[in-house]
Design brief:
heterodimer, A: 563 residues, alpha+beta, Methane Monooxygenase Hydroxylase, Chain G, domain 1, 7-stranded mixed sheet, 4-stranded antiparallel sheet, 15 helices, B: 84 residues, Alpha-Beta Plaits, two-stranded antiparallel sheet, 12% helix, elongated, binds flavin-adenine dinucleotide, binds iron/sulfur cluster
Chain lengths: 563, 84
């Protein structure tokens, strides 16, 4: 049996030091709160923003005019992330967005690298543009510096493995220190916890390279921990069944999508989408954002594959694209293309649709980022009722941290958590897994098994369908898999132990997703039901929550929160 | 395979092992000054280790299944119909 190596008390604990987590830490510390960030990797280069991003959604009144609704309409109806918003959050996000952009600019993240606020890419012809082009290559080191400057404590290589609630409120967390091979555990008591663990990857079989599960578009270290652990602690999840799919170059998932400046084409040279025929940096080709199913469709119907053709892009725009890719963190792609002699001026790159993942589907939060469990907050890609990727993570990270930092003053620390049942259970589980060592099931067996069940029994469209009986079967198998895994997983060091625990978290996420998918008796977006093929307008203004009560998974429809 | 460390250039500073977002490296300083590329199949190709290595000692090799599929752009044009 393991014991606690270290105990820490804090006002605000931030789970995950990605973009949202670091912004939450900064805002909480600015409110005078004592802040600890527990980060699975190292905040300098962790998460989906590790080596950069380049488009930041925001409303800049001096560019867009005084009415936020103009940009709100773009985000909700003309972008890939409009499906699952409580629009009161979208408004709050937009109203705060320019302040955050100016903060980042002041801290040295180049938000106007060409001198002025410039909106290029992710755009429709003739419409207002909402994606600010910036250079995020150094965003993580800079945000880490700003958090430290304000006194936030950062525990790198400390993954949160269990969130702890007491009397229906958040009380703290148990972390696994993976900096050495021997596992060590730190217990953190906190008045408030901000969950900022990013999207959920590794839940479905990798579409590009089924045998290579870390070849993902978004960070493969983000394995559903925030969602699964909040769910176990009693928080509500929302929109889980509407898992989305991303697209990009075929087979090399870490290759970005929207910094490419070209036109999508069929093999016979016809353009795929109706939006552009001449490539320009101002627009890019929005087809891959709003109709990424096209890449699957053209293969299924035999008219494909689809290519991105940059050969008619001007030399200036090609240079701009290369610069943009550096800012987006795609230097591995650039090095690879240089080595292999792949030249966008001459070569067309095939695109595909990747496996489903959870982004903007997860924790249900209110306008201040608070979850249904008192003291618990969530921000960034892990949230289920709002999504704006990097801009959303930055702005809502700040909003939730600001609120947590203020409200912590009115909350008290709970008594000792050493005897908390979830702590004892988790430590015993870890001890069992380590004891089995190499004799047990390896973590990647468990992870692949989850992926198989999700892809076969709860797939996401196009073409692939769900149904009551398939989901019932999937749930049955998932529960059996969890039973076998808990009783049989083995690990030999802290790293493989963490991966084993992640696989168990993914099983919980998968189970909750399947229960929600069974309850949504209609087809909507990527959620296609073979037994309910229509989209039910009555459900358009409702969201579906899923949560645990007395050990049972429950679902509940709630009203969408509209402006 | 994913990251490759040039043993001649590496100074053993440990940066790559410290910052990798998915902990591909293990650095057992007492046994070997150079970090071990231990969990190579977990590399995400984010390039952080390449960018942040002060000695320029890391390079990435992209696995074969991840190869970027591409064709000569001039081939994207209508084809002659083929008759049987
Ligand atoms: C190549 C690429 C390009 C992109 N370009 C853009 C763009 O131009 N514009 C845009 O809007 N978006 C872009 N995105 C998406 C954007 O990066 C994400 O939306 C954003 O990083 C989300 O921030 P987050 O804080 O929610 O999650 P992340 O930044 O992913 O951070 C999550 C953090 O949580 C940590 N963590 C996870 N689990 C645990 C745990 N159990 N315990 C402790 N820590 C944990 C992770 O290590 C990580 O540090 C891009 C993504 C990629 C990969
Ligand atoms: S490329 Fe990124 S994921 Fe791969 S070893 Fe280097 S730092 Fe780690
Ligand atoms: S960062 Fe470079 S020099 Fe430092 S340990 Fe890694 S490979 Fe060696």
């Amino acid at each position: 049996m393991y014991s606690i190596a270290q105990s820490i008390d804090t006002d605000v604990l931030v789970m995950g030091g990605g973009i949202a987590g670091l912004m939450a830490a900064i805002a909480s510390a600015d409110r005078g709160a004592k802040v600890i960030v527990a980060e699975k990797a190292n905040t300098r280069r962790s998460g989906s923003g590790a080596t950069g991003n380049d488009h930041f959604r925001c409303w800049i009144p001096e560019k867009h005019g005084p009415d936020y609704r103009v940009i709100m309409n773009e985000v909700l109806n003309f972008s890939q992330f409009g499906l699952c918003h409580d629009t009161v959050l979208t408004r709050r996000f937009l109203e705060k967005s320019f302040d955050i952009v100016k903060m980042w600019d002041a801290w040295g993240i180049p938000m106007r690298p060409t001198g002025d606020w410039e909106f290029t890419g992710h755009a429709f012809p003739g419409r207002i543009r909402s994606a600010l082009k910036y250079d995020g290559a150094q965003q993580k080191p800079i945000l880490t510096r700003e958090a430290r400057k304000r006194g936030a404590g950062i525990l790198n290589h400390h993954a949160v493995i269990e969130l702890l609630a007491e009397d229906g409120e958040i009380a703290g967390a148990l972390t696994l220190d993976t900096s050495r091979d021997e596992p060590a555990f730190t217990l953190i008591r906190a008045k408030c916890v901000v969950v900022a663990t990013g999207c959920t990857t590794r839940l479905y079989v990798n579409k590009a390279t089924p045998g290579w599960m870390f070849n993902t578009a978004f960070c493969p270290g983000n394995a559903g921990g925030g969602i699964a652990q909040s769910f176990r602690a009693g928080a509500k999840l929302v929109n889980l069944e509407l898992a989305t799919r991303h697209a990009g170059p075929r087979y090399f998932e870490r290759a970005g999508k929207s910094t490419w400046i070209g036109v999508y084409k069929y093999p016979d040279g016809r353009t795929l989408g109706p939006f552009v025929s001449k490539p320009t940096k101002e627009l890019g080709d929005i087809t891959s954002d709003i109709w990424n199913a096209s890449f699957t469709e053209v293969v299924k119907n035999g008219s494909g594959p689809a290519y991105l053709d940059c050969s008619e892009t001007s030399p200036e725009d090609l240079a701009y694209m290369r610069w943009g890719m550096k800012g987006e963190g795609l230097t591995a792609l650039l090095d690879y293309m240089d080595r292999e002699g792949i030249d966008p001026a001459r070569h067309a790159v095939e695109f595909m649709q990747y496996e489903p993942f959870l982004i903007g589907k997860g924790l249900d939060v209110d306008i201040n980022g608070q979850c249904s469990l008192p003291g618990l907050y969530a921000a960034g890609d892990v949230v289920g009722n709002f999504r704006a990727d990097i801009g959303g993570a930055a702005v809502y990270g700040w909003i939730s941290g600001d609120h947590a930092g203020t409200s912590a003053a009115g909350r008290t620390l709970r008594g000792s958590l050493e005897r908390h049942p979830a702590v004892e259970r988790t430590l015993a589980l870890c001890a069992d897994i380590m004891k089995r060592g190499e004799r047990g099931y390896a973590w990647d067996e468990a992870n692949m098994a989850v992926q198989q069940l999700m892809s076969d029994y709860a797939p996401a469209g196009p073409f692939e369908k769900r149904s009551e009986s398939l989901l019932d079967a999937g749930l049955h198998y998932m529960r059996a898999l969890r039973g076998k895994s808990r009783a049989g997983l083995g690990a030999v060091c802290s790293h493989t132990l963490l991966r084993a625990l992640e696989s168990l978290d993914l099983m919980d996420v998968g189970e909750a997703l399947m229960v929600a998918a069974r309850e949504r008796r209609e087809s909507r977006g990527p959620h296609l039901r073979a037994d309910y093929t229509f989209t039910n307008p009555m459900l358009g203004e409702l969201f579906l929550d899923v949560f645990l009560r007395e050990g049972e998974i429950q679902t509940e429809w709630r009203k969408r929160n509209m402006v | 395979m994913p990251p490759v460390i040039d043993r001649e250039k590496c100074t053993g500073c440990g940066t790559c092992a410290e910052i990798c977002p998915v902990q591909v490296f293990r650095h057992h300083k007492d046994n070997d000054k150079i970090p071990e590329v231990k969990f190579r199949r977990e590399c995400w190709h984010c390039n952080a280790c390449v960018l942040d290595c002060p000695a320029g000692a890391v390079s990435l090799s992209v696995p074969l299944p991840c190869m970027l599929l591409h064709v000569d752009a001039s081939t994207l044009k209508p084809r002659e119909p083929r008759h049987v």
